[in-house]
Design a protein that fits this description.
The protein folds into 2 domains: about 5-20 and about 55-170, Hotdog Thioesterase (Thiol Ester Dehydrase, Chain A, Roll), CATH 3.10.129.10; about 185-300, Beta Barrel (OB fold (Dihydrolipoamide Acetyltransferase, E2P)). About 15% of the residues lie in helices and about 35% in strands. It is built from 5 helices and 14 strands. It starts with 10 loop residues before the first strand and ends in a 6-residue tail after the last strand.
Length: about 300
Amino acid sequence: MTTYEDFAGREILPLWEGPDPVNVPMIRHWAEAMGDRNPIYRDDAAARATGRPGIVAPASMMQAWTMRGYAATVEGPDAGAAAGARELDALLEKDGYTSVVATDSEFEFHRELVAGDRVSVREVVESISPEKSTALGAGRFVTTVRTYTDQDGEVVAVQRWRLLRFRPKAARAPRPRPAVNRDNAFWFEAAREHRLVIQRCAGCGTLRHPPGPCCPHCGSFDWDAAEASGRGQVYSFVVNHHPRHPAFEYPLIVAVVELDEGTRLVTNLVGVEPGEVEIGMPVVLDWLDADPDLSLPVFRPQSGIAA
């Protein structure tokens, strides 16, 4: 019978070559997304002026070059390509460690990557801890070592990656607290009284949500609040399955509801199955009392639309 100790030193990802070579367009997109203006990631001449052979990739991109992409992730690895990973997952799930959260990552970089490099990665289990008690639930810390190599087999980086695989606590976790500030405090105070209100400009009468300090139409800083009727329709929605938070029940329907008054708000739909939700479906206000200090508006189908 395989134990957790048996996985120490075991390969769970055989050497895998990333689907694309290191290339300048991806480097540029990454640097722009991260707001990194270092010219060695964007300008060949500037990079050469520092003694480099040309544009280099940010060190933080190391993992990106070996990501399989969405389609390959959904389809799964080739048969037998990651048998160790599948066996470990099966053992963890059998023991009830069905949830996962990344806890930390440590990198050791050996050299910078340049355009044309082909990066491969191999992953080996370093250790699996005894069961630990955590705020999320009882779990085990799984530490693996990923070794990144180039087209010549030379090591370019080593990553120590740690996950917590845990058994969710039976008790419902507290719902995440909203960010309450001077602009929206009135809205949450009304919600605690089961009143759905909409901020209204005292200058031009325009309704607005989310709340803000200034009317976007006339620029007035004066406002009051109008009480909403509690009726509306589904403007848009998604059904959230992952990642899971222990405070919520899944599948979780997150919707943008357009109120009869014309403003929209992000909320949850209740009392309806995901497959029954439709754009334009009439909905009515209900209330979720998450705890003594937090009540939130939710919506359910108008009577007769869905069970």
